[in-house]
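note to self: dont lose this again. the chain is below, predicted strucutre after it. 176 aa total, dont forget to put it in the shared folder this time
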Amino acid sequence: MATSTANLISSSSRQHNVMSRSHSQSQLVLELIGPEEEGPKYYSIPAEISNEPAVVKLMQSGKKLHILNSHILVASKSRGRVICSVCNKRIGGNFSTRQAYQCRDCRIICHKSCHQQIDWKCKNSTSISNLHVEEVDWAEFLRHHQLREFISVGNICDRKNNFKNILIFPFFNLTI
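---
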């Protein structure tokens, strides 16, 4: 685990507390919606692995949250004449300039490129205290995913015309 996130581990549980992290860059957190009784789960994505194919694929299955100064920023598209809370310029026009981040709590909105410059705390930050980020061994996750890239599942037909699912490894077959 990266040393920058090591100080987030709570002693009472194996979770990260998002509020204890303080630096100028926003923290990327993945929100995955699970069964209704469990509620959403949150996973911190270290910047150094955010472009790994396995992590990119994982991020497509959830919602990316950017956490900065107690703001929980979510990507959104601006409609109409919206003014950026950071640079005071209009958000709008073509597709790339309509992309914005909006805080879930205080509802400020800013350009995607301006979100790192938010230097004030969120005034209505209530949900951040309930946001606990699960600890993930990313090295193990990436190693497991790279192994899975070499495995494919296929059907074979035996001599009695019975189909079996098999895992095909590069050097040997396993019947499941």
